[in-house]
């Protein structure tokens, strides 16, 4: 379709800086993403719906490949996974970070090469380990002492499996306490500080069927500053040197995890990826030179920064209510498709689409349709004062940790995912229906 590009009106409300790069304005307040009108998507696929800009996802994969040469980039599937996403990551040369048999099986059955996948998890089930070994996953990241003997037994005396060790370096970073994983007061990994990481490494080195290729750490998520990564690299190099001194072993790989922060609203900071890449490599090279270590091959595991900004959530307004001083705009989705505001207090910037409003801005709270007062999508946002039932709202930066964390709460059903690319829209994941709920419910 052809699109008329309108000038930026220069108002805060019209700021498209956190939208996919392909976003354009149409007359009548509509927007296109990937060359497709959002109001057309809402009509064709109904609401709520998630729109994913394939070009934006691919471009973000390429940004990583360009910024991180000689580095393995594993897309963290937990941010969002479907078969098309698997194919895009594969075609763009990324590896895959999976954390369950489900993610791994979906990826492999969609054609992803298992040797380019790495399996994580603080509590891997027997099914996870069975699937990983059966499918031939590239690396398994050991997260607890008990996993060592379990994994060695599952691999068997004649088997062989590459593994890494998840180290907790004692660095606090991340956008919210629930997503900070670099210190000893949380459940992931093995502590560098109290010696459990070193102890686990010693035990793994004693298991001939497990090939320890290197250390892993993931210090947290939604990190917007390079410095914690540099501090973590220094500590990892320190541990690598101690392992070399004790065991005479040097590791060929170092995985620094993901956590790269993005802006959810205009003006918010995002992690500077080229700066991260440059400084990580310099820190690693400098630290290894000083310690007399060979420089391991670096890996990173971005999830959010690949897919978050490529997604847009579309909702229809169902009700508008004035309660005391507040205006509540209730939409047809909510915490069952996006639990992030409720979980982490995250702020979003929804936008009215499909019409130009003559009304001035009004402070509004956008809420969902679920049976909880905490079902808030965006509190205290500026939206036109005349929003009414039937209006469409679009929420940018909706690609990561929304649908992948979606629930069946209130049996509302999870929304569909529509890919947009070069003027065409296609359904990737269909809407969850009453029939889906009924078919799983086999009692009665
Ligand atoms: N690697 C490991 C081992 C991880 O645990 C994670 C995320 C990643 C990589 C990718 O992190 P990212 O680049 O996407 O920040 N539900 C939360 C985020 C949880 C992150 C869990 N682990 C949220 O919605 O903010």
Protein architecture, described:
This protein is of the alpha/beta class. The chain has 2 domains: 12-52 and 310-440, Lyase, Ornithine Decarboxylase, Chain A, domain 1, CATH 2.40.37.10; 68-302, TIM Barrel (Alpha-Beta Barrel). The chain has 12 helices and 21 strands. The protein has helices at 38-45, 54-67, 83-91, 101-109, 126-135, 146-155, 196-205, 227-247, 273-291, 304-307, 340-344, 434-440; strands at residues 24-25, 31-33, 36-37, 49-53, 71-76, 95-98, 117-119, 139-142, 161-168, 190-191, 210-216, 253-255, 297-300, 311-323, 326-331, 351-353, 361-367, 376-384, 392-396, 417-421, 424-429. Strands 4, 14, 15, 16, 17, 18, 19, 20 and 21 form a 9-stranded mixed sheet that branches. β2 and β3 (36-37) form a beta hairpin. α4 packs parallel to α5 (126-135) and α8 (227-247) packs parallel to α9. It starts with 23 loop residues before the first strand and ends with a helix. The protein binds ligand LLP. Ligand LLP binds at residues 76, 78-79, 97, 120, 179, 218, 221-222, 257-260, 301-305, 340, 344, 401.
Care to give the gist of this entry?
With 444 residues, the protein is an alpha/beta fold. It contains twelve helices and 21 strands. Ligand LLP binds at residues 76, 78-79, 97, 120, 179, 218, 221-222, 257-260, 301-305, 340, 344, 401.
